[in-house]
Amino acid sequence: MPETSRRRLLFGTAAVSAGALLTACTSNDPKSEDTARSAGPAADNKPGKPVTIGFAGPQADHGWLNAINENAKSRAAEYSEVKLETTEGSNDTAAQIGQVKTLINKKVDVLVILPADGKALTQVGLEAMRAGIPVVNLDRIFASPQAYRCWVGGDNYGMGLNAGTYIGEQLKDKAGAKVVELAGIDNLELTKQRSQGFADALKNYSNIELVARQAADFTVESGQAKMAQLLQAQKRIDAVWNHDDDQGVGALRAIQQAGRDEFLMVGGAGAKSAMDAIKADNSVLKATVLYPPTMAASAIDLARALAQGKGVSGLAELEIPTSLTLYSAVVTKENIDQYLPTGFS
């Protein structure tokens, strides 16, 4: 949506609210104040005008990506007035561009897009916005802020920072502590951000050294192979941070096969398998740092609010924010019951 349009909507809504407030101040009707409060665009779950949301999600070839799709679909189903137009998930940028163009041609009210490649899909995001279709950009960010109205995603740097801080606190009294990192795909910006956050956290603990790092591919097989290499090379380990719970399944296999249990392990993302292991407390896996797929449900909520001219419940602003970064909570056996319902398969 162009900035001028946003200003018109903001000032127009503000004028309506100001008018309602003036009436409340001058009227003797005791209901006037309540009417003034309800005149604003606060979000709610009451059915509004019919809305068609186009959802261009990823190929569900990974537990977290599948959870993204399921969260979007289940949230949309909660609203009787929302119709969700979904595409067949794709990791091929050309195919996904074509899918988004189809949704634009269908004249959906709002688009929610998790791009296979944010930079590559920026142009089609711009195309949608210029066509008057607001875009909610999910997770992998477009190269231009003009290509989306709102971005919703996880905190990759914070994920690494919180994992490193948790490990640091567990090992702060251990002299010469040795830590290894099982990263994700190294050419992804998110992997670089997670590693940077982890490194920055460890700087606060002078007794801890990051002695080895291996990049895996977010798969069970790669996690097992790369963890086996780390175990073979490092005869002493005090903690492992693994960026992704899917590849963590393989990492745990390698650890069990090697008969190693002298260290603690922290996972990443929040898979149900990881949470089950943390709750059982029968392996080296003691915590996982969330990267919540519930962001897709939030994206649907925001898309609905955009289409219906609503704000966000609990906020004073008349319009939804331009960005929403989710918090990467550390899940341990102490708080596992709180987060277990969010675990994904």
From TrEMBL:
Region called Disordered, residue ranges: 26-50
Protein name: Sugar ABC transporter substrate-binding protein
Keyword Signal: yes
PANTHER family tied to this protein: D-ALLOSE-BINDING PERIPLASMIC PROTEIN-RELATED
Source organism of this protein record: Streptomyces gelaticus
Listed Gene3D superfamilies: 3.40.50.2300
Primary location recorded for the protein, binned into one broad class: other
Family: Belongs to the bacterial solute-binding protein 2 family.
UniProt keywords, alphabetically: Signal
Pfam family, one: Peripla_BP_4
Record-annotated Periplasmic binding protein domain positions: 53-310
Compartments where found: Cell envelope
InterPro entries: Peripla_BP_I, SBP_2_dom, TAT_signal
